[in-house]
What does this fold into?
Amino acid sequence: MIRLIFTATTIITSSSAIYFYIFHERLSKRVAHKSHLGTLSTATKSTNIESIPESVFSAEYFTLYDHVSKSVSRACLPSNEATEMLFKRLVRRNMTAFSRFPQALVLAMASKTPEQKESFKAGYLAALDFEVGNLVCGVYQVVVRRWDRVEFEIKMETVDFVQARLAISFEESSQEGNVVFCSETVMWKRADEGRKMPLERPVLRWMHETAAWWLMDSGVRYLVDLEG
It folds into this structure.
């Protein structure tokens, strides 16, 4: 019986691993993505993440940068709403979806203050305009808000040697008739810091990629479905 249970568990675990591997591979083909590990160069600085301190763009810091985007024809999106309003819908929907992820459930259990606990609730997220100071899912605090972007500082008390940002934005090309929605994550630490940042760990990096890619892909499909 023990051998049977062990065999069944092994089969289920292997099947799950294969499924999620295939899921990750399929997602990678539905979005545009790139990453960078090392010194955050001036080339990467063109991403326009405004809240990254100038000093981070030097050899004094070791950084991890991830970028995912998805382009959609403006004609496929609701014509009765401005793109900046659709963008706000996208951010609300994606952060609400993220609040149900395993990563967010862990953050919710670690929340201590009423403000942190409230920041996971669907009603709270659905009404947010993402103004500077707003807290989302316990650790994401808005530090930059423009009509075409939201930047969050990621507050990680358990790894206080790391600083991080999440930026969600869009760019509209009237000439090509497309809208490109984008999500960027950057983490940095001092170059002489030997401890690993969370996203330097393969499993956490894989989970992050899968979540970011799925949120971008499904978020844009959510906006397209609004037209229907």
